[in-house]
Amino acid sequence: MPKYKVTLRNGTSSDKPFASDFQAINETHRPTATQMGIVQIDRYMDGGGLTDVWSTAPTGRADRPDT
After folding, report:
1. C-alpha to C-alpha distance for 60 and 50, rounded to whole angstroms
2. Which of 18, 25, 36, 49 is most enclosed, with most CB atoms within 10 A?
3. What is the model's pTM?
4. CA-CA-CA-CA torsion for 22, 25, 63, 61, nearest 10 degrees?
């Protein structure tokens, strides 16, 4: 199961296993008080690096294309 790094607004982070990027985003963005400060979710690559899965925009909203 892939491991993800979840970073909070205060700069702290924790590693959590999720089955997929979709599950990582859904599980960490449930509307609970402890989850409201998430600003970045990264997945650990097989070679040891990180790849961006989700991050907030500078305004605090998720990036969305204008339509």
Report:
1. 22
2. 18
3. 0.74
4. 150
